[in-house]
What we know:
There is one protein chain. By secondary structure, this protein is of the alpha+beta class. It contains three helices and ten strands; from the N terminus they run βββββββαβββαα. The chain has helices at residues 96-108, 164-173, 179-190; strands at 15-23, 29-36, 45-52, 56-61, 67-75, 80-84, 87-89, 110-122, 131-142, 158-163. The chain has a four-stranded mixed sheet with strand order 7-4-9-8, with helices on both faces. The protein has a three-stranded antiparallel sheet with strand order 1-2-3, with no helix packed on it. α2 (164-173) packs across α3. The longest helix is centred in the middle third of the chain and has 13 residues, at 96-108. It is globular, with a radius of gyration of 19 Å. It starts with 14 loop residues before the first strand and ends in a 6-residue tail after the last helix. The mean pLDDT is 92.
Amino acid sequence: MTTDELADRPEEWPVVESKDLHRGDWVVALRSDVIRHPDQPGGETFQRIILEHPGAVVVLAIDDDGRAVCLSQYRHAARQRFVELPAGVIDTGEEPLEVGQRELREEAGLEAGEWTHLLSTYSSPGYSAEVIHYYLARDLREVGRGDFVLAHEEADMRLFRVPYRELLDAVLAGAVRDAPVALAVLTAQARELAPE
């Protein structure tokens, strides 16, 4: 394998037909695309269901005592309460760092003096183009949520801090299974940006 092969690259196959299956006022939409291989202009077509998502940001915030800021939140699709990190959807026109700053303030009542981009990944490109941007936030200070009001599942969200090493161990043990938490924690560890 060459260096050029070890990289994702843009490519687009012809869409023969596209129709909305669901489009409402919530974050995601669902559509059906009928596509064809570009090297087979008269060849077989096949359907793919696409989940449209504007992208999101996840923040691994670590305080001066080496503790990670975590949330405990119910997620109905999985019917579980997950250990998560402050995170949120990218609104139209927002930059990922702005979203991270907003979500850290709204969900945890914190601001950070130091921000490091960890990585950006496609969540599940087999059915969605959602990209999640991961940040490490340090030099934390309490600022409150401002006028942001928690609603729905967020109203039941619990905020807590845990030593980073305990969070890493919980991820490795399979006790914490939220993929964004695992990616943020393991990336910080691999890049030697996490506390000892």
